[in-house]
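Q: Structure tokens for this one, please.
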Amino acid sequence: MPDPRPGQWLSAKLSQHRIADYKPFGFVDGEGVRCSLYVSGCPFACVGCFNEAAWSFRYGEVYTRELEDQIVADLSQSYVQGLTLLGGEPFLNTEVCLSLIARMRAELGDTKDVWSWTGYTFEELLLESPDKLALLREVDVLVDGRFDLAQRDLKLQFRGSRNQRVLDVPRSLAAGVAIPWARALDADRTYDQIERRALI
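A: Here is the predicted structure, written as tokens:
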């Protein structure tokens, strides 16, 4: 599994400003009703990744103003809690992500939160390029770290392997250390275990 040096991978060199998918009004990519933008390109290439098609920076469609208009319109709905950035690797598509967040903030203020998934750890991002730090400062909740198939655990909330964390980014940045998101709630059994028990 790749472990990049600080600044080794840069959005300015890698990103093709392409989008793998956009899913409005979903319930799985974070807390509440969310609009989820899946960016293209991820050199972490974790074994067992659920979205291997999005590893290529050339996958999908080019991000457009029309798509941005649609996302902001969807986010303006009162029942939508926020925006989720995932992919692919959002922190290697910072121009797209920062543009969308800036537009969202300009039109909707701080009424919506931002979640992001990343293969980077919080500690790695603190040592990274200015654009990655700028995006980190805009995120409220971060699910960090590479997916590790050997540590896969279906009982975890919002993440696939035990090494990954759900972090409160504003508190973490203020403290200078990773602080867990207080509302994270893991299960004590998988769905299959619950289903089997119900049949006994």
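A few notes: The helical segments are 11-14, 65-75, 94-108, 122-126, 130-138, 169-175, 191-199. Residues 11-199 form one domain.
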